[in-house]
Amino acid sequence: MRDAVTRWSRFPWVPPAMGKGPYLWTLFLLFFLWKYVYVRPAAMELLCLAATLLVFLPLYFSSFWTRNRARLPFIAAMLVMAALWAPVNHGAGTLVIYAAAMCAGIDDRRAAFATLASVMALALLLAWRWQLPPDFILPALVVGLPVGVAGILETRLRQAREGLLRKQEEVEHMATIAERERISRDLHDLLGHTLSLITLKAELAGKLLERDPAACRREIADIERSARQALGEVRSAVSGYRQTGFKHELAAAHAALQAAGVTLAVQAGELALPAAVENVLALALREAVTNIVRHAGATRCEVGMVLRDGLIVLTVRDDGTLGDAGAIRRGNGLAGMQERVAALGGRLSLRAEKGLKLELSIPFIPFIQEALS
Asked: What pLDDT is stored for residue 101 in this prediction?
């Protein structure tokens, strides 16, 4: 009861999510007071009526802040007041309606319906014990029972909506995380490759500065062009619309490997690739070439792409000195590559074969090719 008084002294009196409805529901008390429209109450009855209202209102509003077992004392209090008033005021059946409505605060459906059935049974018992006329029990049954059932079902629906909202928030949160990871992978692939190329060309330009100024200027122009291209690709990646063509990536790989003194041999057939598959293959080629330029110490690189047994197979092989595949397996670039390939149902392997050999295979269905080409 102390909590009820404390709650009564505060605002708001009901949870904000419930709106103004609980305030309007107090109008049901008019049925309880209807008797005194045509019957003047005695002084004692008037005093008891005022005391009842002073007890009812704090209990009623406080009940909205309780759930499950904590709701039971409020239901019991309503039934006790109904029992005390029933012999002298048949409008006390209204208090049974409030008790039935409070059953919606019990989360377990079976327990809620069992409590509602108990409330109705006690109302019938009161009517039988005091031989009350129908104007007591009919409002309790005709109004209280549907109100209780509707309240219990509405509570279940509200809980389902809240659960759905939580799931939606979780999905949005996971989508945000996935998008951040995508941007992180793409930026790593884009900047890693381009910055490696710029570094190599800057070193070459420094060596050519005094020996061949014209060649130095060409290298500096290439550096500027590569930087501008990288800026455009980063902007596209952040906005989420980047699509990298495989032929374009082959040309970029040739330029990067040539600057590093690595010969490139290409054996790639003409295939009309779906955009998603081509994007993954292009990014995989970029990451592989970046690793060769940075780590391999190779003099030759071979790139092959064929259609084999319903799979598009991309291989990138070098003759470098880095013979341990595990030495670079933990890099962010390879991890991002693995995730992209797995998302398309493909497989990626990295083996040591007189250098390193990267092999990537992605399922390829002809009718999808025709639809998307």
From this structure: 93
50 plus 161 within the same structural domain: yes
pLDDT higher than 90, residue 273: no
For residues 322 and 297, the answer to whether their CB atoms sit within 8 Å is yes
Structure tokens at 185: 């992978």
The secondary element (H helix, E strand) that includes residue 153 is helix 145-211
Q: How far apart are CA 40 and CA 45, in angstroms?
A: 10
Q: What is the pTM of this model?
A: 0.49
The DSSP line for 320-344 is: -S---GGGTTTSHHHHHHHHHHHHT
Query: pLDDT, tens digit, for every residue of 152-210?
Result: 998 888 888 877 777 777 766 676 677 677 667 666 666 666 777 777 878 887 887 77
Q: Which residues contact 181 (CB under 8 A, 6 or more apart)?
A: 339
Count of alpha carbons within 13 angstroms of residue 93, beta-carbon side: 27
Amino acid at 204: L
Structural domain including 348 reads 261-373
- Quick one: pLDDT at residue 190? 64
pLDDT of residue 79 exceeding 90: yes
Tokens 């989508």 -> residue = 175
Residue 225 belongs to some domain of the structure: no
User: Residue 337 maps to which CATH number?
Assistant: 3.30.565.10
Decide: 222 and 258 in contact? Cβ < 8 Å.
Answer: no
Boundary (domain end) residue, out of 122, 139, 170: 170
Number of domains the chain contains: 2
| Last residue in a domain, options 113, 137, 170 | 170
- Structure token digits, residue 228: 């501008």
